[in-house]
C-alpha cells in the first residue's frame, strides 16, 4: 500500500493526499513532526528532508527541485489519472509556478500565524528556529500584524482563478488536471486552521473547492 509521509497542514502534502483520494486507492498516512525529518532522511537515503514523500513498496518518491512534480507525475502514471495531458503541459507549468509561488506564499504565512494551535509543544523550539532562520527574527509576530493585508492580497491573487472558473467546472478543462489539485492544496493549507474562509466575492472558486473535495477519478471515466 502506498504510504504518504507528511504533516497535515502542509500545502504540498494536501496536494498529494487529494490526488491519492481522487485515485480511489487505499493508502496510509504517516504524520511526522514538522521539525523532525529523520524518517524522510532515512527513507530517501540522505537525499531529501522535505515533505511530502511517498513510499510505494521499494520505491521512495520525492521532488528533485522546487519546480519538479515528481510525486504527482508518479501517481498520475501509476493510476492513469489524466492529470498531465501533453497538450496542457506548458500552461500547467506556468500556472503551478504561480500557485506554488504567489498563492502559497500568502497562504502559508496566514496559517503559520496560528502555529501554536498546530505545532505540538515538543516541536515549538525547532519550529520557531526554522521559521526565524528562514524569514528573520520575529517573523511570526510580524505576519500576525500583517494579517488583514495578507488576506486582501490573497483575495487579489485568487481573482484570475475565479475568472477561469466562471466558464469551466475546473481551472483549465472540463475535468480536474494537476493545477486543480495544486491550488486545492494551497487553499487547503489556508483553510486548515479554521480561522479563515475563502473570499466571499469568489463564488465560483468556493463551488470549485467543494467539488474538488469530493471529486473522484471514476467520475470522469469515459
Ligand atoms: N516543491 C516541493 C515543495 C515541498 C515543500 O516545500 N515542503 C515543505 C513543507 S510544506 C518542506 O518540507 N520544506 C523543507 C523544510 O521545511 O525543511 C513539493 O511540491 O513537494
Structural overview:
Helix 1 packs parallel to helix 3, helix 4 runs antiparallel to helix 8 and helix 8 packs across helix 10 (203-214). Helix content is 55%, strand content 8%. It contains ten helices and four strands. The protein has two domains: 2-79, Glutaredoxin (3-Layer(aba) Sandwich); 86-220, Up-down Bundle (Glutathione S-transferase Yfyf (Class Pi), Chain A, domain 2), CATH 1.20.1050.10. It has a four-stranded mixed sheet, with helices on one face. With 222 residues, it is an alpha+beta fold. It binds glutathione (GSH). Glutathione (GSH) is lined by residues 10-12, 49-52, 63, 66.
DSSP strand tally: 4
Which class of secondary structure composition applies to the elements?
Answer: alpha+beta
- Major β-sheet annotation: 4 strands, mixed
Series of secondary-structure elements, N-terminal to C-terminal: EHEHEEHHHHHHHH
In the sheet with the most strands, the strands line up as 2-1-3-4
Q: How many whole angstroms does the radius of gyration measure? A: 17 Å
Helix content: 40-55%
Any idea how many domains? 2
CATH fold-level assignment of the largest domain:
Glutathione S-transferase Yfyf (Class Pi), Chain A, domain 2
- Roughly what fraction of the amino acids lie in strands? 5-15%
- Stretches with pLDDT under 50, minimum 5 residues: none
Quote the distance from N terminus to C terminus.
Answer: 27 Å
In this entry the ligands are: glutathione
What is the name of the CATH class of the largest domain?
Mainly Alpha
Please tell me what the overall shape is. Answer: globular
Amino acid at each position: 500500500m502506498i504510504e504518504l509521509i507528511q504533516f497535515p497542514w502542509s500545502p504540498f502534502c494536501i496536494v498529494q493526499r487529494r490526488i491519492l483520494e481522487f485515485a480511489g486507492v487505499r493508502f496510509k498516512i504517516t504524520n511526522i513532526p514538522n521539525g523532525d525529518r529523520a524518517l524522510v532522511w532515512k527513507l530517501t537515503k540522505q537525499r531529501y528532508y522535505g515533505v511530502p514523500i511517498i513510499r510505494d513498496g521499494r520505491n521512495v518518491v520525492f521532488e528533485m527541485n522546487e519546480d519538479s512534480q515528481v510525486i504527482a507525475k508518479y501517481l498520475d502514471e501509476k493510476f492513469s489519472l489524466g492529470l498531465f495531458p501533453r497538450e496542457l503541459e506548458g500552461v500547467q507549468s506556468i500556472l503551478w509556478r504561480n500557485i506554488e509561488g504567489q498563492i502559497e506564499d500568502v497562504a502559508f504565512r496566514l496559517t503559520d500565524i496560528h502555529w501554536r494551535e498546530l505545532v505540538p509543544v515538543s516541536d515549538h523550539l525547532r519550529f520557531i528556529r526554522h521559521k526565524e532562520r528562514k524569514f528573520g527574527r520575529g517573523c511570526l509576530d510580524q505576519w500576525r500584524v500583517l494579517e488583514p493585508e495578507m488576506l486582501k492580497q490573497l483575495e487579489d491573487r485568487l481573482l484570475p482563478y475565479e475568472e477561469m472558473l466562471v466558464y469551466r467546472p475546473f481551472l483549465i478543462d472540463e475535468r480536474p488536471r494537476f493545477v486543480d489539485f495544486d491550488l486545492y492544496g494551497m487553499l487547503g493549507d489556508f483553510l486548515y486552521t479554521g480561522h479563515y474562509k475563502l473570499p466571499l466575492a469568489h463564488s465560483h472558486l468556493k463551488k470549485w473547492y467543494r467539488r474538488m473535495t469530493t471529486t473522484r477519478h471514476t467520475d470522469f471515466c469515459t
